[in-house]
Design goal:
Order of helices and strands: HHEHEEHHEHEEHHHHHHE
Low-confidence stretches: 1-10, 301-322
Mean pLDDT: 81
Strand content: 5-15%
Number of strands: 7
Helix content: 40-55%
CATH class of the largest domain: Alpha Beta
Structural class: alpha+beta
Radius of gyration: 22 Å
Number of domains: 2
Oligomer: single chain
Length: about 325
C-alpha cells in the first residue's frame, strides 16, 4: 500500500514549518525542541491502525494472538492483567461486546453495508534499541489520558520483533455510547503524545510527518529495485502495453509525481526560510543545523533510523493505516 503524501497546502503537519515561513515568526521553546529533534533525526514514533474486528470471533482471535494464547495475556484499563486459557472470551463478555454485536446484527442484517467495527486494533512502535518497558509505559500514559473512563482497552507488549511495540485493542463504542472514528487528526494527536510521553521517560523520540522530513517517496519492491540497478528488469517494459488500465495507471503516477514535486518544493523552501529566521534571531547554531539537514533531506540518510514495522495478526485486517 502506497503511503500517502502530506500536501502542505491542504493539511497541517505536526511540525508546521511552513507557518513559520509565512509569518516570519520565531518558534516557541517547544517548537524549537521539535525542530531540533527533527533536524537531528531523533527516532520517530509510529502509530499504526492494523485493522479491527467486526465479529466476536474476530475480536477473540486477535486478543488470543496478541496475548499469545494466554501465555502473556493482556494488561487491561483497570491496571489489572488477564491471561490464561480462554481469557479472550472472558474479556469479550466483560466488555459487553456480545450486546454490541447483537445490535449490529439487528441493524445490518438486511443491509449491504458492513457492520461497524467492534474494536480497533492499534500498534505503537519504536525503532530497535528503544527500551521496551519505556514504550509500554508511554502507551499506558497515553491510554489513561485519552481513553480512561470512556473506552475499554487492553494491551500487550511484544519484544519478539527488533522494534519494541505495543498492541492495543480499543473498544470502538465508549461507555457513554459514543463511537470512536479514527481520523488523521486523531492519529497525529496520539503520535505526538506518544513521543512526548517517551521523552518524559528519558527516551529520545520525535513525531513528524514523512513529508516534513523529506521522506515522501514510497520504496520500490526490493527485487524491482535491484533489477533496475542491473538494468535487467522486464517490469518497465511490461507496463508499456497501451491499455485503458495502463493509461489510467500512468495518469495516477503522473499525479503522484506532480504532488511529490510540489511537496518537495514546499518543504525545501520552508526549511530554508526557517534557517534564515533562526539566523536573523541570532540562533546561528540552529540555522546551521537546519541547512545541513535540508541539504541532505531528499538524498537519503543511511544514519536515519527506520521505524517501519511489519506485524501480522490473526483475525485482523490485512490493510492498515500508518502515520509516520
Amino acid at each position: 500500500m502506497r503511503k500517502q503524501i502530506i500536501d502542505l497546502r491542504d493539511e497541517k503537519p505536526l511540525l508546521d514549518i511552513a507557518a513559520f515561513a509565512r509569518k516570519g515568526r520565531l518558534p516557541t521553546s517547544a517548537e524549537r525542541l521539535h525542530i531540533s529533534l527533527t533536524v537531528h533525526r531523533a527516532p520517530e514514533v509510529m502509530v499504526k491502525v492494523s485493522g479491527g474486528a467486526r465479529t466476536l470471533s474476530g475480536v477473540e482471535r486477535h486478543m488470543a494472538y496478541i496475548g499469545r494464547e494466554g501465555s502473556i495475556g493482556l494488561d487491561v484499563e483497570t491496571d489489572g492483567h488477564i491471561g490464561g486459557k480462554g481469557f479472550e472470551r472472558d474479556l469479550v463478555r466483560d466488555w459487553d461486546l456480545d450486546v454490541d454485536a447483537l445490535q449490529n446484527h439487528t441493524r445490518y442484517s438486511r443491509s449491504t453495508k458492513k457492520p461497524p467495527k467492534l474494536v480497533h486494533n492499534i500498534i505503537f512502535s519504536m525503532p530497535p534499541g528503544t527500551s521496551p518497558r519505556a514504550v509500554l509505559r508511554a502507551v499506558q500514559r497515553l491510554a489513561l489520558s485519552k481513553w480512561a473512563l470512556q473506552h475499554r482497552y487492553a494491551m500487550a507488549l511484544h519484544t519478539d520483533d527488533e522494534h519494541p511495540h505495543v498492541h492495543v485493542v480499543l473498544k470502538a463504542v465508549s461507555e457513554q455510547g459514543m463511537r470512536l472514528n479514527i481520523r488523521k487528526a486523531t492519529l497525529r494527536s496520539w503520535r505526538a503524545q506518544f513521543a512526548a510521553n517517551l521523552r518524559d521517560l528519558g527516551v529520545n523520540a520525535n513525531a513528524t510527518e514523512r513529508a516534513v522530513r523529506g521522506q515522501v517517496m514510497s520504496p520500490q519492491r526490493d527485487g524491482v529495485y535491484r533489477a533496475n540497478l542491473r538494468e535487467e528488469t522486464t517490469f518497465a517494459s511490461q507496463r508499456t502495453v497501451d491499455s485503458p488500465e495502463d493509461r489510467q495507471s500512468s495518469r495516477s503516477m503522473a499525479e503522484h509525481n506532480s504532488k511529490f514535486r510540489s511537496t518537495r518544493q514546499s518543504v525545501t523552501m520552508a526549511w530554508r526560510e526557517m534557517a534564515e529566521i533562526a539566523e536573523k534571531s541570532g540562533d546561528v547554531e540552529l540555522a546551521a543545523e537546519i541547512r545541513s539537514f535540508e541539504g541532505r533531506m531528499f538524498h537519503g540518510d543511511p544514519q536515519s533510523p527506520s521505524p517501519n514495522l511489519r506485524v501480522g495478526s490473526k483475525g485482523s485486517m490485512h490493510t492498515s493505516r500508518i502515520v509516520q
